[in-house]
Amino acid sequence: MAEVAVSTVATKLAELLMEQAAVAVSQLAGVRGQVENLKNELGWMQSFLRDADAKQEGSDRVRLWVSEIRDVAFEAEELIETYVYNTTMQRQLDKVFRPWHLYKVRTRIDKIMSKIKSISNKRETYGVVMTGDDGNNSNERLRQWRQPSPSSEEEYLIELEDDMGLFLTQLLALEPNPYVVSIVGMGGLGKTTLAKKLYNHNKITNHFECRAWVYVSKEYRRRDVLQGILRDVDGAPRNEMERIPEEEFINKLRNVLSEKRYLVVLDDIWGMEVWDGLKSVFPRGKMGSKILLTTRNWEVALHADACSNPHQLRPLTEDESLRLLCNKAFPGTNGIPSELKDLATEIVVKCGGLPLAVVVVGGLLSRKLKSSGEWKRVLQNISWCMIQVGTVSSLGRVKTIRIHHLLRDLSLSKGKEEYFLKIFQGDVAGPSTKARRQSMHSCDERYDFLKHNAHHSRSLLFFNREYNADIARKPWLRLNFQQEKKLNFIYRKFKLLRVLELDGVRVVSLPSTIGDLIQLRYLGLRKTNLEEELPLSIGNLLNLQTLDLRYCCFLKKIPNVIWKLVNLRHLLLYTPFDSPDSGHLRLDTLTNLQTLPHIEAGNWIVDGGLANMANLRQLGICELSGQLVNSVLSTAQGLRNLYSLSLSLQSEEDEFPIFMQLSQCTHLQKLSLNGKIKKLPDPHEFPPNLLKLTLHNSHLQKESIAKLERLPKLKMLVLGERAYNWPELTFNSEGFSQLLILRLVLLKELEDWTVEQSSIPRLEYMVIDRCEKLKTIPEGLKAITSLKKLRIIGMPVEFEHKLRTKDISEFTNTPINRWRNVGDNDKRPIPSSMEWKHLKVLTLNSSGSCFNFLLPMYICLMTGQALINLFTSMHAGSNSFSKSLGMASAN
User: Fold this and answer.
1) CATH: 2.60.40, 3.30.70, 1.10.287, 3.80.10. Which one for 691-850?
2) 835, 451 contact by CB (below 8 A)
3) How far apart are CA 564 and CA 772, in angstroms?
4) According to CATH, what is the number of the domain 419-581?
5) At what angle do helices 355-366 and 372-381 cross, to 10 degrees?
6) Distance separating alpha carbons of residues 744 and 56, to the nearest angstrom
7) Which range is least confidently modeled, 29-38, 314-323, 728-737, 831-840?
8) What is the pTM assigned to this prediction?
9) Tens-place pLDDT, residues 493-537
10) Where are the domains of the chain?
């Protein structure tokens, strides 16, 4: 981490020296030489940090040395950023650069250089040396984390009596020369575990006068291995050995071993050259001295002692694996329950006979419910890595990941130790911290303590959990709170801030001083209560790369200064209610923009704004007039990086053109069209790599479905409100050959849906949402064996009743794994006849629950008096409530 800090500062110094602006060069001239010296010193120091970062885990003094380097690097970084901040602000205010600024810079550089020299003088004392190719700090840390302790015994071992007896005989034999005993096998097969059992066996501890255990690994370092042996056999302190030349402590090691009967375990040797570098260290010693090594390579074992007979470990048999799994998953019991035996067998087969894999999975299962459903999920999700994919989008993109809780705890601990981050939860008040990134996971409004951390902070993140859990469902509550006064100190104190996230924080306005945070790269205002207009000073944030204004439900207008933010990459404006007036914005300078998911149509389209966005990947435009559609579609063909396009027409009178010019958009994967389509293009006129298609208000003709069926790569289709207005819908045979997800939403005229044989053969997930006239689920779904999840939302009682009593029973063979009825909390047991051949999840959302979901959105759009009437009637009773709702609609 310290190496990264120094590298970052050195890079910034180099950029500062190469600054092209004449004014900056002339201002820097007085201290240019000192800045170059500082850069060179930091670059030289960086060369030692690969070794030091690895060594700090085992040495308090090296850890302190690295900490001092980190501190001085941060100090240099602050100096650079403060200098850039002052010169930029003076330039914006048309002020003359003052010489005393240079004097302060020169003085601080001198102090930093003095600290660097002091730190450098300590290097020899701490034994930090230049590193070669094997000095990779991340590999060294990984090696140390993997290093086993010989004293830690594995619980629930499968005893291999024959193996233990054979090895004990070899180790206790009294040969005159040191004899090498080798254990060979692939990773996870139990080599180290067996070696531990032997190392700690009573007969071994009584037989040998001294023992040593060292972990060699792929990242082998001869000095570290030899120091480990000497430390075990002689008790020599680590600090003392670090100061002794290598030849001196090798002689000391040979002298100690030559007088005793010794056992040295070399765990995890990877190459023959490793043994060649170590074998000369081991003297004859007393009769019966032994060397026990573990390796994955049979040739290494033979090379170590050609006269020996290396022992090749075998994988566990299925019975042994089941016994080990039982010991871990059901400690203290006699066996695996009969209903789980088949699943247990599948799990151990997937573990491939590796004891380590069986132990890990067994430990996981011990914390799970002892049910077939839980064990099936474990079987499906077994992945031998610490970070696993959590959820994946319909197009295969990773949306969330899961991390093992131990790795997360370790990351947070190391991050805190190295000032990388600090998380405040619950009671946020605390002492000052040097952490560069601070995250507040609390609704507590006492943020004053953060003032003491302004000197070090580069990222401030606020996450209002109360908003997410409660206010998101009750938007009217937000009107009663204001927090902007609590946070105004941020804009005054945190001048060097790069990241500011105010997710869900109840601020209704931003002060003009927000424009003073000129180092900002990220400004997150998602779910805030911003009203009226953003300050004009937002245009001063020239380094800003992300501006997030999503779900700012009360924001009325964005000032026309966004064009100044030439480094902007992500401009996020979408809200579920109404977008701020964004069509007036000038955008032609935003050549780096990559994400623009929601913006109103305007002159910016024809004024070059869209054509200049060559890096655009995601684009969404609403309120499009018929005249502008052709301009957008024509320009989109030239956007070679565009993979997602969403277009929404202004009125029902507007139409998408018959020929939509999309076949040249070869990178386009997601397309959403909201508006009338008089004639759907032929399949070859669609983007050739289209994966997801969403249609709303399209008024498609019957024959249009046949065209959609022939889209060769389509994986997800959403037919939304008024996309299809006919009572009959037919999916023809062989149609939608690649479709995985289908959503039918608010198709109010749909009555009969037919799915012919061999249609949608790969369908996995289907949603039927408020298609009120649909009579039943199509018979053709019986043959779709891939369907795993079906969700029914807001359908009439008759449809739901038929689904419960008749339709499900016709899809017989396998019981449904989960039945959900969201909304009415129906907890009736599933009828025994209710079976579904391949379905795993069935979700029912009653009509009432849909109303509950939409109610907050509806209330937010009411007038003040209508809102008062509604609240009054809610207390009066349900009948009065219904009447008030009608009055509110009229208002």
Assistant:
1) 3.80.10
2) no
3) 50
4) 3.80.10
5) 140
6) 59
7) 831-840
8) 0.64
9) 788 889 999 888 878 888 888 888 888 999 999 988 887 788 999
10) 2-132, 147-312, 336-384, 419-581, 691-850, 861-890
